[in-house]
Amino acid sequence: MAASTDWIWQLSDAQLDELGAAVDFARERGLDPMSDGVAAFPLPSFARQLHELVDELDNGRGFVLVRGLNLDGYCGDDIDLLYAGIGCHM
Questions:
Q1: 55 CB contacts (<8 Å, ≥6 apart)?
Q2: Do 79 and 23 contact (CB within 8 A), yes or no?
Q3: How far is residue 61 from each of residues 2, 7, 36, 46, measured CA to CA in Å?
Q4: pTM score, two decimals?
């Protein structure tokens, strides 16, 4: 594993922006991804990539390292929304 980095997934600025927009969407509408599902946390482009990550977990190596999720600027409730939203897509 030390010679390879294909198991490390660095979040891009576009992915981070999409996550931030989804948090805003859910918060502004009072939605909860855990009860309202993926419609409460829209990820138009990133959802497909999350499904690829799940495929790697289920059918590939069984693990990935996700880097770059910066929680600065998020309050506790928004962090909860963020993780719940990612989870509902996975």
A1: none
A2: no
A3: 14, 8, 31, 21
A4: 0.90
